[in-house]
From TrEMBL:
It comes from Scophthalmus maximus (Turbot). GO terms for cellular component: cell cortex; cytoskeleton; focal adhesion. Residues 206-265 form the SH3 domain. Pfam families: LIM, Nebulin, SH3_9. Plays an important role in the regulation of dynamic actin-based, cytoskeletal activities. Agonist-dependent changes in LASP1 phosphorylation may also serve to regulate actin-associated ion transport activities, not only in the parietal cell but also in certain other F-actin-rich secretory epithelial cell types. The keyword Ion transport applies. InterPro entries: LIM-SH3_domain_protein (IPR051759), Nebulin_repeat (IPR000900), SH3-like_dom_sf (IPR036028), SH3_domain (IPR001452), Znf_LIM (IPR001781). GO terms for biological process: monoatomic ion transport. Its main location: cytoplasm. This is LIM and SH3 domain protein 1. The keyword Transcription does not apply. CDD domains: LIM_LASP, SH3_Nebulin_family_C. Residues 3-63 form the LIM zinc-binding domain.
Amino acid sequence: MNPPCGRCNKPVYPTEKINCLDKYWHKGCFSCEVCKMALSMTTYKGFEKKPYCSMHYPKTSFTIVADTPENLRLKQQSLLNSQALYKEDFEKNKGKGFSAVVDTPEMQRVKKTQDQISHALYKEDFEKSKGKGFSVVVDTPEMQRLKKTQDQISNIKYHEDFEKSRVRSDAPPPENRQDYEEQPSNPQIFRQPGGETRPAAVAPPCGGKRYQALYSYAAAEADEVSLQEGDLILDVEPIDEGWMFGCNQRTGQRGMLPANYVRPV
């Protein structure tokens, strides 16, 4: 038997049947309730099991309720009812999964006992783990003295390494003497950059100043003096900017030496 149409109540045959909104419709009867515009399964909007177009679809609106004394009384009554229901549910659920524990002196004593047991177990585990990878060293006066002695030894070694490295890397380079070339025609004249000349180094008279070598220096020219750290230089006289003339007391060698490698004594 063919079902009736939702609008005209006439039988709907399978060739023209539309099943929507829990009803059967003729294709021509499936239209908007207001403007009667024909609708399809993709363009309709249902409201209370009736088809509408998007333009005439009923829009829900909120109703403003005045805050009158009667409404306030109803609101208060609703809150009281809600609290009564909550308390009733709470009483029913007692003992079914959780229970409220009163913080009585007996409960406090039990809690303190449990904390002590936990602390004892922790200390026992700590004692067992001693020596298995680390150990706690008590900061006693003896340990403090040993630590201070180790720091002093480390500081002394650091200064020794520092003094040794000064000779190898920290010593400032001497003045560049590669620009000074001896003239073959006059062995007493040296050429300087810029065309200026200076006389060759001549040994000054005895009675000069005394200097001590700060760094080691290897002679680069025949008229220079090699130095070792701590050598005593006698009869020192300045002969040019950055250079001096003197006698190495250790080797007896006389000649030129860089001024920034020695200090007066």
